[in-house]
Design brief:
- The chain is mainly β and 417 residues long.
- The strands form three sheets. It has a 15-stranded mixed β-sheet that branches. Strands 20-19-14-15-23-16-22 form a seven-stranded mixed β-sheet. Strands 17-18-21 form a three-stranded antiparallel β-sheet.
- The longest helix has 18 residues.
């Protein structure tokens, strides 16, 4: 086993072919053993501008997805008012000698790029091809970036070198505190991002398949709930295969929805109940590592608010409950392809150790992680499942078979919030 930081790939010698490329989110040093490639991945908290305006962040994110559905790609929206929430970071080494870039993992976009905070030394060849991606605000403070494709050498954690990789370089988002973004969204999201060419092109995962580094266009995602230290490493991304050791039961798959509001993303259909109370009708929505909460259409949000007895907390923009109401919370059940994935009461609340990191948060407050989407039911997607859901269930993004899978983990019943 090789513990490595994540990189991108184009070509690879036969002696280094491997069936698995993974991102291990531990603080372990690099070690070389035998088969799969496992890469460090760190969670970080951005409080560079103060506290977190969580709701403004998430509403901007929703606007991005809505605009892609309406206009065929994403465009400008509102910008987050204060600092962003936690990010999952992976290291990418580029050039020779290599420079390390810390990239945010984003399943809601498909372009991977570097050079924002740490400058690119132009050790590769400039192709002259221009890439432009629109983020629409939210957790990316600048609405768009423009970059140039270079062909350079990419190194995976100092152990695996891949030459001739096509890499997008940009330095136009100085308010963004990271070096770039690792886009793990579906290939459809690359459409119209290459200037003058409306066609799609291979994503990070697709390039790994083309290079023979992995055998399947598939990503396994394992996160765990926050324990109070935002800088603690908390999970694993696996490219090409599934890490079944992280699952405590079988993986249940459901196809990518054909609903145009969500089909370009990792979109699925589901219904939701709170205890035995129906919350969300069978609807389409999006799996998104760029969102922290679970967003529901207005009618479903209202049903959940009424069922829990929660009140709207003006300072944070979140739902708030009392201690007695928390003790009475029931399981929130996600019905996916005839299986139930339940969030226990503790999984439905914001981590109390981070209350004072919220804009307007009180130390002893109990805030729910269910928020309202300003979308039109029956016309647009009706839910977003962000980190709050994926921290409780292993998630598989399968590009080959156009499906998403879920399985419980040892953290499904965790009470650390």
């Amino acid at each position: 086993m090789i513990l490595l930081p994540l990189q991108q790939a184009m070509f690879l010698s036969a002696s280094l072919l491997t069936p698995l490329l993974a991102l291990l989110i531990t603080g372990s040093p690099v070690e070389v053993r035998n088969s799969p490639i496992i890469l460090p991945h760190t969670r970080r908290l951005d409080l560079s501008n103060g506290t977190i305006d969580l709701v403004q962040h998430e509403k901007a994110r929703v606007s991005v997805f809505r605009d892609y559905h309406t206009h065929g790609r994403r465009a400008e929206s509102i910008t987050m008012r204060l600092a962003d929430l936690s990010k999952y970071i992976v290291a990418l080494n580029v050039g020779s000698p290599p420079t390390t870039y810390n990239l945010v993992v984003d399943s809601g976009s498909a372009v991977t790029w570097i050079g924002n905070r740490t400058p690119y030394d132009e050790t590769g060849d400039n192709t002259g091809q221009v890439v432009q991606e629109d983020y629409g605000g939210g957790w990316v403070p600048t609405t768009s970036f423009t970059g140039i494709i270079f062909i350079d050498t990419v190194t995976l954690g100092g152990e695996l070198t891949i030459p001739n990789y096509e890499l997008t370089v940009s330095s136009g988002m100085r308010d963004f505190i990271y070096d770039g973004i690792l886009g793990i969204g579906p290939r459809d999201l690359t459409a119209n991002t290459l200037r003058g060419k409306p066609d799609t092109y291979p994503t990070f995962t697709g390039r790994l398949v083309d290079a023979g580094v992995i055998g399947h266009n598939l990503i396994g995602i394992f996160f765990q709930p926050i324990t109070g230290d935002p800088d603690t490493d908390v999970g694993e991304l696996t490219f090409g295969e599934i890490d079944y050791t992280k699952c405590t039961d079988d993986i249940v798959y459901t196809p990518i929805t054909d609903d145009p509001s969500a089909s370009a993303y990792w979109g699925i259909k589901q219904s939701i109940t709170y205890g035995e109370t129906e919350i969300l009708d069978d609807s389409s929505g999006i799996i998104d590592t760029g969102s922290d909460y679970i967003g529901l259409a207005s009618y479903a949000y209202g049903r959940y608010k009424a069922a829990t007895g929660a009140t709207f907390d003006q300072p944070t923009g979140l739902l708030r409950i009392t201690t007695d109401q928390y003790n009475d919370l029931r399981e929130l059940k996600f019905h996916i392809n005839n299986h139930i994935f339940g969030l226990i009461p503790n999984a439905q609340i914001w981590p109390r150790s981070l209350n004072q990191r919220l804009d307007g948060g009180e130390e002893d407050g109990i805030y729910l992680i269910i928020d309202r989407l300003d979308t039109d039911t029956g016309v647009e997607f009706d839910f977003i499942l962000g980190y709050s859901f994926m921290q409780r269930f292993y998630t598989v993004l399968d590009g080959d078979d156009r499906r998403v899978g879920f399985a419980p983990t040892s953290f499904t019943p965790a009470t650390t919030n």
